[in-house]
Write a structure and sequence with these properties.
Layout: H1 3-16, H2 24-31, H3 33-59, H4 67-75, H5 77-110, H6 118-135, H7 143-162, H8 182-190, H9 196-202, H10 206-209, H11 212-238, H12 251-254, H13 256-287, H14 293-309, H15 315-344, H16 359-379
């Protein structure tokens, strides 16, 4: 592997791995081992194909766009509004999830010293980071590196301390009452297609661009395995006591000190993600919608906080809903754009997927079917 491939791989893996990893053990514990494996395999393959589809779209197009631009080019202006809605919804929903998780991690770290609730800590987390988003400091651009280092350090720390405590009796095979629970959370955690256009731009030579398909496959396998092993270790220790943030449920087994250290790593990671996403939303409102700086910054920081204050504070539910929108809107849009780009593309791509004609439609069916099942789980019971 050359340096360019490794840097691009790091970018994609770093984009995929984020706060969603902390929600996976909870849904795996509640649904059972077999459904969790099923979702990892099916959704892992579906998302990998979507990344490959999007990569080929980028290589078939002379202009440099992102999902909104590709949708406008290949599907028309009306369809692009769906991409705009999805982008805003997903970013605000992700920021909300990080506010919830940040407050919980702060409570783990400081709760015994400063007796405040997780909700108050969430607002402190939001207020401090919002100041950086308003100022738009250039350090935000470097936050991704800090996030990757902190997150991987925290994950492997948990691996190290949980391994001796894993008990096979803590695993249940299947719980039909929660069988649809993992869909949105796992899908949210696996998606990284925002990085695909960046990688296509990063590679300058044709020889390098031909490796994008291999890069996507490697990144998909690495992240899915990491998520699965992380969930295996956490659920293997805490079983049905697994908490929605993965860490709090480990305290009785590993002790407060170890979990505080893990929460610190997680806090740095999600803080960096919050800054990157918040700054992205602010700039999108400025440049795509031509809003004044103060207005765009205000919307970017106030929207997720307003949802939190309105009572949307269930981390797993937020991840599930955001994952649902990612799949049923953005995922299906990528399939449709891919099919049109094959017909109307403006350049010869460095790689072409050789798949049976029905595969893109099957991916779309999996996404829509999963979304319907997820809605049934949340609202049909």
């Amino acid at each position: 592997m050359n340096n360019s491939f490794l840097l691009a791989l790091s970018t994609l893996v770093g984009t995929i791995i984020g706060g969603g990893i902390f929600g996976i053990p909870y849904v795996a514990a509640k649904s059972g081992f077999l459904p969790a494996v099923f979702y990892f395999v099916v959704l892992g393959l579906a998302v990998m194909l979507l990344h490959l589809f999007f990569g080929e779209v980028c290589l078939r197009t002379k202009e440099k766009f992102r999902l909104i631009g590709y949708t406008r080019k290949y599907l028309g202006k009306k369809a692009s509004w769906l991409a705009i809605f999805s982008t805003l919804f997903v970013v605000v929903g992700s920021l909300l999830a990080y506010i919830i998780l940040g407050g919980n991690f702060l409570h783990i770290v400081l709760g015994e010293v400063i007796p405040l609730s997780s909700g108050v800590f969430s607002m402190i987390f939001w207020a401090v980071l919002s100041l950086f988003i308003i100022r738009g400091i250039q350090l935000i651009a470097k936050a991704e590196l800090v996030m990757n280092i902190a997150l991987f350090a925290g994950i492997f720390l948990i691996f190290f301390f949980t391994a001796p405590h894993v008990n096979l009796e803590n695993f249940s095979l299947i719980n039909t009452d929660n069988i649809f629970l993992p869909y949105g959370v796992i899908l949210f955690a696996l998606v990284g297609w925002a990085a695909i256009p960046e990688i296509a731009d990063f590679f300058k030579r044709k020889k390098e661009k031909r490796t994008i398909d291999n890069l996507v496959v490697v990144a998909g396998i690495v992240t899915a395995l990491l998520y699965f092993v992380f969930s295996l270790f956490v659920v293997g220790v805490s079983g049905q006591e697994t908490s929605y943030d993965a860490l709090q449920g480990l305290i009785p087994f590993l002790g407060k000190e170890v979990i505080v250290l893990g929460a610190l790593f997680g806090l740095v990671a999600i803080a960096a993600s919050f800054l990157v996403l918040g700054n992205y939303l602010k700039n999108s409102l400025r440049y795509d919608f031509h809003l004044p700086y103060i207005s765009s910054a205000s919307i970017a920081i106030i929207a997720p906080a307003a949802l939190f204050l309105l009572g949307l504070r269930e981390f797993i539910s937020v991840l599930g809903i955001v994952g649902l929108v990612l799949g049923v809107v953005e995922g299906v849009l990528i399939v449709a754009v891919f099919l049109q780009a094959q017909k109307k593309g403006t350049r010869e791509p460095e790689y072409k997927l050789r798949l049976p004609f029905f595969v893109p439609y099957l991916v779309a069916f999996v996404l829509v079917g999963g979304a319907i099942a997820q809605l049934f789980f949340f609202y049909g019971r």
